[in-house]
Amino acid sequence: MIFLLLACTAPKEEAFPTCDITPPDGGVLVADGPLIRDSLGRQVTLRGVNAGGRSKFAPYMPFDFDDFDSALADYLDRAAAWGINVLRVPFSWAALEPEQGVIDEEWAGRYDALLDGAWERGMYTFVDAHQDIYSEAFCGDGFPLWTLENPPDPHHDCAGWFFAYVTGDPDIQAAFDDFWADERGTRTSFGEMWRGMAQRHRDRPGVIGYEILNEPYEGSADHDTWAQTTLPDFYSEIAAILNAEDPDAMVFFDSTGTDATDATTALLAPQGERLIFAPHFYDPAVFSGASTFTSDVDASLGRWHDKGTEWNVPVLLGEYGADPDVGATADYALAMQEAMDSLQMHGTWWEYSVAEESWNFEDFSIVEADGTENAVLADPVARPFPAAIAGTDPSWAFDGTTFRLDWQADGITELRWPARLGSPQLRGEGGCAFVSGRSIYIDAQGPAWVEVQRPQMVPVSEP
Q1: Average pLDDT, stretch 297-322?
Q2: With a threshold of 0.90, does the pTM exceed it?
Q3: What is the end-to-end Cα distance of the chain in Å, rounded?
């Protein structure tokens, strides 16, 4: 027996006719209660990856490079082939402003090029002010050394870095206590940093918004009291700056890193316009090194979904991921994707780096160091989804072979289809289709359904 790649033949009466469709310009994205919509009123789904752990240390890019332009093109081409439509793009304040009041324009230009290149390939971006345990001085990342008095030398060789939050490292607590109280003006400087970033990117095509601060930490304060007072006040303060400087942008806000392990939070909703709740979720086994995962994924993500409903804001799962070498990771990652489909939740996988060296020995990247896909992660993460639905009452699912969408159609819907799944085979009722690159456009009215199937390996006899 040999195997040939053959297209599946659908019943004639169900075959989707082809037609010429001009891909519509979705324009500015807006938060509409718990949904994200484009300027055409279509329900938008954002699915993508974080660009990535390698961004946490010099030269603060998600890939190694000698020739930056070539490495950037390879990086973005690979991401676009997965069919995703958004990148969460971390940046370190230490990279942007290594000396107080001095912007590193060489780094900033590279960051600009990453944002521009993503949009050229059909991927939105949002700008993430990233930190972990405050600074490289504490084996973390984020805040510049000039925000600390007599900081130790930077390093990133701490496999158990996350437990500094749990054990309460006094130096990290003191740094955050100072930040929240603005004793040395760091919080004020942070707001001015965001003012400058919004001014720089407010007219940049494809940039849909800004994430205020990754996984904020209470320092030595009581967690729940801080989460109900200091943190929402801080978010409201920075949201006001971003709303003023870039009125079209969405503002993403996170819960804490420790909240990410059980998908619960004491946080109260901040004030502002175009807010997006962007929490994280990690099964505790991700950090403990256990060989099995214990979370009820549907229930955990459901709690974050319900929090968005309570606050009447969209929910984008800003980070979720796992070590590909843990035996249960493939099933766990698939369960996460299926839960997001069921909940119609947005999300960005942590993470996508092309690098020989990892930050703090942490390697959740969807590719190996040379850019080769890690199938354990690529299989579940690079999957079809409806990027923009024209109409109402959608439901969708993907079983690994066939993607199906049912909805009450009213215009042009866009599906994303990863290149790794092969040429899509379509059937359905209610409209016609046009395939362009990684996008499938469906022009339909009224009750409609579409199934998109990957080509099958069909056994045939040898000659």
Answers
A1: 97
A2: yes
A3: 9
